[in-house]
Amino acid sequence: MQANEVVDIYRELEEADIVIWIDGGWAIDAVLGRQTRSHSDLDIAVEAKAVLALRQRLAHRGYRDVHSEGASAWNFVLADDGGRRIDVHVVVLDERDRVRGPPLGGIAYPAGSLTGKGVIADVRVRCVSADFLLQFKTSYPPRAIDIVDVAALCALLGRPVPDTHR
What we know:
Structural class: alpha+beta
Oligomer: single chain
Largest sheet: 5 strands, mixed
Strand order of the largest sheet: 1-2-5-4-3
CATH class: Alpha Beta
């Protein structure tokens, strides 16, 4: 998934009043303000009330459901014929825009996690906050890419790199 594709999708959804938050590797790059590596997919969070509209918009771009381990109404993957993949995480927000769900599985985003701002290819985007990205990336045994991501997030936040990720 290239930066221009991410920005095109983000802008199209934005113009259709479909609010998304960038997550995963693209969110790390967004909060850092620069692309640090290539990305095989795009992770996004979207409100449950916008899922149907999101699916319809992305279907016009050739995206359709593909089988993925643990897929549900709250977490699913869409892909196009070019091999581009979008991993969708569905959330429910309360009247104050605090995360309240998903009620039936999926990724539970903590309060405050969907408050990040970042930049992808000179376009400002909503994304998962740097603090939450760091919290998530240090919650499991690291892969090589996680060590790089954690070091970059720690530098951004002015925090020491945990021993587990050196």
